């Protein structure tokens, strides 16, 4: 009798839930929900399970927020919940709550060449750290290491300080700091970050910005109908390079740097022709080292779900290996 699990990839805007066969890893019944349409996380799970009446023994839910402690509050939406209460309510034998970029990281070993686009650098070195980051509703960061299985080092690297590297960036960052206070990397490298950059670009020219959404900023840049939006997307790509190079140095990521998240795949052609790689390598004495570090853009549709399955399978295997208590 096959065992089934609920798996989820829960961001600030969208919640994706699915069923997986724990033995084979096959994912099915994928559904996507807007988080703003549901008052609680439990309400989304209840609806999904009502529409998919299988016996789901296990669950692995990847959450876009810190996941430690008895109470989890999501960073970019209003949901909060108790993992213990969630496990009891839905009668899961085992519940794994992991960071969303832990899940993305765990998907990397199984990604085929068709699921990524290599963007410069040499060949990745085996058994070396892999840096993972991505811009969406927020900015996720993690590190993946192969040590008797795959180990993820999670973190909240998206909230570190962002530092300007050029005079132009300093003007933009100064305006953003005056409006937003602490200037984290996420305040540039996210959906809202696109809006923040756009507004600062216009204000720097002593004009009043329009009220645009991230999608409108991106669309106007890609169709070349707005020079302010074009400049915004250019600065965004460059900032992604600066930040990615910093991560590569911080983690010693000779195993490569992987970019995930919802934004970059949607602007893939623009991104690949941008100054990203130049900014990535622009690290003074360590520029030569960074020239050898490969960068991969993940274009797989659901790395978070794939990684949640990999995490759950690895955890269940680990538990089975542990000796029984006397």
Describe this structure in words.
This protein is 38% helix and 22% strand. A hairpin with a 6-residue loop joins β5 and β6 (80-81). The strands form 3 sheets. Strands 8-13-12-9-10-11 form a 6-stranded mixed beta sheet, with helices on both faces. The model has no long low-confidence stretch (mean pLDDT 93). With 326 residues, it is of the alpha/beta class.
Number of strands: 13
Give the overall average pLDDT: 93
Structural class: alpha/beta
Please give the alpha-carbon distance between the first and last residues.
29 Å
Q: What is the tally of helical segments?
A: 11
What share of the residues does DSSP label as strand, in percent? 15-25%
The main sheet orders its strands as 8-13-12-9-10-11
Order of helices and strands: EEEHEEEHEHEEEEHHHHEHHHEH
Which stretches of 5+ consecutive residues score pLDDT under 50? none
Calculate Rg over CA atoms. 20 Å
Main sheet record = 6 strands, mixed
Helix content: 25-40%
Shape: globular
